[in-house]
Amino acid sequence: MLMHPDVMLSLANDHRRELIAEADRERLLTSARRARKIKTNSEVRGQPTRPSSAPAPAR
């Protein structure tokens, strides 16, 4: 099947844009997942927080 060179160039450019968009989406999702993981790991569940100006409890 013969195609005009302009059509081939257009198809190649479209495919390249699709690959770039897919890579951008993947980077964005990875970044969001990493931020979410850091946020959930930094929270300590079940431990009440005390203000930094409050004295430490005596043991």
The profile of the biggest β sheet is: none
Overall residue-averaged pLDDT value: 83
Number of strands: 0
Helix content: 55-70%
H/E topology pattern: H
Overall structural class, as computed from helix and strand content, comes to: mainly alpha
Continuous helix count: 1
Low-confidence parts: none
| Percent range for β-strand residues | under 5%
Distance between the termini: 84 Å
Report on this model:
It is a single chain. This protein has 59 residues and is mainly alpha-helical. It has a domain at 1-32. Helices cover 64% and strands 0% of the residues. The chain has one helix at 5-42. The radius of gyration is 26 Å and the shape is rod-shaped. The termini are far apart.
Present the secondary structure layout:
Blueprint: H1 5-42
Notable traits:
59 residues; mainly alpha
Question: Could you write a compact summary of the structure shown?
Answer:
With about 60 residues, the chain is mainly α.
